[in-house]
Amino acid sequence: MKIAPNVTPAKRPPEFQDGSSIRLPSLQILNQDGSVAAGANMPDLPRDQARKIYSDMLYIRLLDERMQNAQRQGRLSFYMTCTGEEASVAGTIAAFGAQDMVMAQYREQLALRYRGFTTAQFMNQLFGNIEDLGKGRMMPVHYGSRELNIMTISSPLATQIPQAAGYAYGQKLKGKDACTLCYFGEGAASEGDFHAGLNMAAVLNCPVVFVVRNNGYAISTPCSEQFATDGIAPRGLGYGIKTIRVDGNDILAVYAASVEARRIAIQEQRPVLIETISYRLGAHSTSDDPSGYRSKDEEQIWRDKDPIQRMKNWMIAQRWWDETSDSDLQQSYRTEILAELKLAEQRDKPPLGDLITDVYKSVPSHLLEQFQALEAHIAKYPDHYSV
Amino acid sequence: MANSTVREIGNEPKSRKMNLLQAINSGLDIAMATDQRVLCLGEDIGHFGGVFRATSNLQTKYGRDRCFNTPLTEQGIAGFAIGLAAQGSVPVAEIQFADYIFPAFDQIVNEAAKFRYRSGDEFNCGGMTIRTPYGGGIDGGLYHSQSPEAYFCHTPGLKVVIPSNAYQAKGLLLSAIRDPDPVIFFEPKAIYRASVGEVPEGDYEIPLGVAEVVQQGTDITLLGWGAQMAQIIKAAELAVDEGISCEVIDLCSLLPWDRDCVAQSVTKTGRLLISHEAPLTGGYAGEIAASIQQHCFLSLEAPISRVTGLDTPFPLIHEKHYLPDHLKIFESIVATCNY
User: Fold this and answer.
1) A364 with A255, same domain?
2) Could you tell me which chain B residue has the CA closest to the CA of A171?
3) Would you say residue B330 has pLDDT above 80?
4) B271-306 pLDDT per residue, tens
């Protein structure tokens, strides 16, 4: 049992360190024009999987555009886009297996898409209708699916981080060839749960891969006002966690790092931290307006680094893709999304009985009593309470 | 009630004298022996067996994977336990003192309590139990004495359980661990060693949500839970000399609570006194009083009395003056009966 830190005698005078001597490079494989950076190690990414990743990124870009507009039209109460960060999520989720649990924040709709969440399922949740798996209880974008091993999204930030450590510990105890993939943003990393979760994962040897999407902003607060360090990655080192930083707009870099991260988590039974450097091109949510805190010029710099365009350039250079296929696919996605949107907004709302189920495994008598009183009241004023 | 509603598991007629801590330890031991999924985690609970020794020998018996120390982080312990439960384990997490549960408040109130509801039952963390010692009586001052039960009783999705003796502690704990919803199990540390009784060595459960009528009476109902029961019973004995017959009820489960049992008793006696260590304002006695006056209004002969701690932080030197002891309860019994 080790009970004290390593103590190496130091020379006088006293020397203090702040970690600035540690420089964490950012893994990059693709140039923006789709060419491969000199000396880069290409990951093994077969054509069909590359096409799936690209198609899913394209799909989510279009879904986000459409649903943001639907919110502007007043058809939807709220929405959050992941525009600009598609590769950070697509490149990570693609490296994991269907048996790996995903515990995400709220901007990882690509993980759901990649696992097979259908357009109808997205829409049913967004409109909180009778077919929503969450029974119309959570605001839009709080998806979840037991079948797809994707934990339901929770609004409080960073709470999923210690939970992911615990989930992974359970997987380890059961001897499963599985790990947990946990997403959060650089702002959430200021919460106590980040520190609690990373430390516990490291001390208790949990097979969990943490992915921090460093997208530059927590609502309006820039990184420079969020932390004094060089990004989030140095904190991983501080907790004794194997850590890597990647260019989050480079699908191949993200994928290559993630394949290795999963191998470490499962084979070495220990946590890994990946920091993806990207930019939130859209607003925080439909309730936010970035023009109040950042410039169009700044946004343009990142628009020029678009991760979808970069992957497309590479795919075309590989002769795995072409412009005609691209516009055909976009058209078919647009048609599907619009059709499912119209269907979902017409579906009934969940029944009133769903108000009191699932608080507990079975409904307790005091809650049933409250519900009966509510039903009697509604029966008296049915028009006022119709939805 | 007690024995009639207890579910005995297996044919284990043997019982022996145990204190409340030994009963907890025995309950944890049986839970771990009967279900491979049960794990114990918390600060100092591993080899050391916990600062109160509630988890003694469990690591030796079941291994480090199933009984382990965590770093010193209550929010981490609660979050970790939620993840374990969601994955299919049955974690029993210890928070060393209830006074230190507040860093975990978000994980308990916003996460554990809402896990099933928010997912539409796609996921749940119902396997988790949080054990934590609460209450005064150990010269613990502000931060080793609090009774924070009311905060958690205000949270739909949680169950809150408080035993008052060794027999209850084991039976209620086994029920809590096996219950399909998250349970906060507050242990009265003041009587960890003082409360000694016959406890079956085998497996048994006492159902949650059911109160225990400790003593029948006709003039007033005295209601409490945990360590406070000893003060209430002492006060009831003093009342005998005044010719007052007290019915004494131990609530056992605070959420959900056995309103029918209490209402039935108050309908008979016409008077109710509720006593808890926690401060008066916003205390759980207020909730019970409001509910009982609604259901027993025409039976009540006097206002419902609350005998509680003061609306101050928990004191150190003046602990004895602060606590709602048997004399304060006795005086309130007399005043209520003479109203």
Assistant:
1) no
2) B87
3) yes
4) 999 999 999 999 999 999 999 999 999 999 999 999
CB distance from A97 to chain B under 8 Å?
no
- Taking 80 as the threshold, does the pLDDT of residue B4 lie above it? no
Query: Which among A138, A142, A166 has the least Cβ separation from residue B79?
Result: A166
R_g of chain B computed on alpha carbons: 20
Write the DSSP symbol of residue B107.
I
Q: Do the domain assignments include residue A16?
A: no
pLDDT at A20: 81
- The residues of A annotated with a catalytic role in the active site are 280, 284, 293
Residue B119 contacts A, CB cutoff 8 Å: yes
Q: Which residues are CB-contacts of A252 (< 8 A; sequence separation ≥ 6)? A: A29, A30, A36, A40, A42, A43, A45, A91, A314
Domain that holds residue A126: 26-350
How far, in Å, CA of B291 to CA of B271, rounded?
14
Residue A364 CA to residue B186 CA, distance in Å, equals 21
Residues A181 and A329 in one domain: yes
Q: Is residue A11 part of a domain?
A: no
CB A152 within 8 A of CB A142: yes
CATH class (in words) of the domain with range B2-205: alpha beta
Distance from the B181 Cα atom to the nearest Cα atom in chain A, whole angstroms:
6
Cβ distance of A170 and B88 shorter than 8 Å: yes
- Shared-domain flag, residues A143 and A242: yes
DSSP A188: G
Domains B2-205 and B212-337 share a fold: yes
CATH of domain B212-337: 3.40.50.920
Asked if residue A369 and residue A274 are part of one domain, the reply reads no
**pLDDT score, position A14:** 84
* CATH of residue A204: 3.40.50.970
Residues of chain A with pLDDT under 70: none
For A161, the closest chain B residue by CA position comes to B79
Name B245's Cβ contacts closer than 8 Å, sequence gap at least 6.
B217, B218, B219, B220, B239
* A367 and A319 within one domain: no
The helix/strand/coil state of A385 is helix
Q: With contacts defined as CB-CB under 8 Å, which chain A residues touch B106? A: 156, 159, 193
Check pLDDT > 90 for residue B5: no
* Torsion angle (degrees, nearest 10) of CA A216, A220, A225, A230: -10
- Does the beta carbon of A8 lie under 8 angstroms from any beta carbon of chain B? no
One-character DSSP codes across A75-96 = SSS-----TT-HHHHHHHHTTS
Q: Are residues A64 and A212 in the same domain?
A: yes
Domain total in chain A: 2
The pLDDT value recorded for residue B10 is 59
Residues near B41 by beta carbon (within 8 Å), at least 6 away in sequence:
B67, B68, B69, B70, B77, B80, B81, B84, B91, B92, B93, B94
Q: Does the distance separating the beta carbons of A163 and B82 come in below 8 Å?
A: yes
Per-residue pLDDT band at B2 (split at 50, 70, 90): very low
How many CB pairs below 8 A link A and B?
A: 152
Residue A326 near residue A320 (C-beta atoms within 8 A)? no
Check CB contact of B105 with chain A, cutoff 8 Å.
no
Cis peptide before B256 (omega within 30 of 0): yes
Same domain, A374 and A325: no
- Quickly list H helices, B38-88: 58-62, 74-87
Cβ–Cβ of B259/A161 closer than 8 Å? no
User: Are B322 and B232 a contacting pair, CB within 8 Å?
Assistant: no
**Does A7 reside within a domain?**
no
**pLDDT classification of B3: cutoffs 50, 70, 90:** very low
The catalytic residue among B94, B144, B187, B212 is: B144
CA atoms within 13 A on the CB side of B97: 14
Tell whether A337 and A361 lie within a shared domain: no
Position B279 scores a pLDDT of: 98
Report yes or no on A77 lying in a domain. Answer: yes
